Amino acid sequence: MERLFTLFCKRQEQMNMMNSFNKTMDYIESELDGTIDEKEIERLSRYSFALFSRLFSILTGYTLSEYIRLRQLSHAAADLRNTDKKVIDVALLYGYESPDSFAAAFKKFHYASPSEVKHGKEFQSFSPLRLSLTLTGGQTMKVKIEKKKAFTVAGVGGTASAPEDFPALWNKLFSKAPHEVLAKLGNGQSFGICTEVSDCKSFTYTAAYDVLPDAEHRERAEELGLSFLEVPEAEYAVVTLNGPVPDCIHAGWKYVMETFFPEHGYRHAGSPDFEVYAEGDMYSPSYNMELWVPIVKE
User: Where are the alpha helices (DSSP H) in the chain?
Assistant: First the structure.
């Protein structure tokens, strides 16, 4: 009976996560020809707009803005084909400032101009995304729940819209000092850190190393022109990752979002999360590192 109750609770947690996501997607779908309210996305998803956007990208492989654009272009093609709306009216309806910018985006996606589609040429369709409960087996990762004490890091940060932006920040960090120098600031641990900006609409990615708390090590970091981040004590889901970067990081996030969170009733706490790198060849199939995801119970 206890096992059945546990399974029931896990199923409910999966349903809650799925429902929150799908209600958010339904809202976005209803506003494709209007103005999407970020506050409403926060209310429905129960995440800040920035965090929902980031987790959406992890789950789907699309940025939220890209997904909205593709859905709008799908709707635009259907409107042109099935109604008597003019091209300029459809362009304005879906947020394009001019027929030319609309036509360029439209043709890039549909491989046909708006007028060609209006007069019968075939067009692409991009379906709305929804979460559904599926039975998946065999996929597992080593995850432990661990409370980490407060610590300090120093590095180089910048606003990043996609993981493809991260290597540039690491290059900028290593232009200030090589690994051997940075490792001596603390215990030699390097981190990739995602931190939500105060406007709740964007993230900063920081390439950093840990720094010992004494004045001498902090002064060395300051001399290198590094920025400090004070990380408070927090509880994390610590995920062991195996394989080349960035594939192992993407796989870890997918597992946390699709399996670990709904099964164990946790959600992202909204505080910084960490890619925790180890020595070795980052592109080797045998490379090992960790992902620290801050958690809070649903």
Answer: 2-30, 38-45, 49-60, 64-82, 87-93, 99-110, 114-118, 166-176, 179-183, 215-223, 247-255, 261-264
pLDDT band per the 50, 70, 90 thresholds, residue 15: low
* Helix, strand, coil in percent for the chain, rounding step 5: 45, 20, 35
User: DSSP letter at 243?
Assistant: S
Domain boundaries 143-297, corresponding CATH code: 3.20.80.10
Q: List the structure tokens of 99.
A: 């027929």
Grade residue 7 by pLDDT with cuts at 50, 70 and 90: very low
pTM score above 0.85: no
pLDDT single digits (tens) 59-99: 888 889 999 999 999 999 999 998 999 999 999 999 999 99
Owner of token pair 């199923």? 11
**So where are the chain's domains?**
1-133, 143-297
Computed on alpha carbons and rounded to an integer, the radius of gyration of the chain in Å comes to: 23
- DSSP label at 274? E
Domain 1-133 CATH (choose: 1.10.10.60, 3.40.50.880, 3.10.290.10, 1.10.285.10): 1.10.10.60
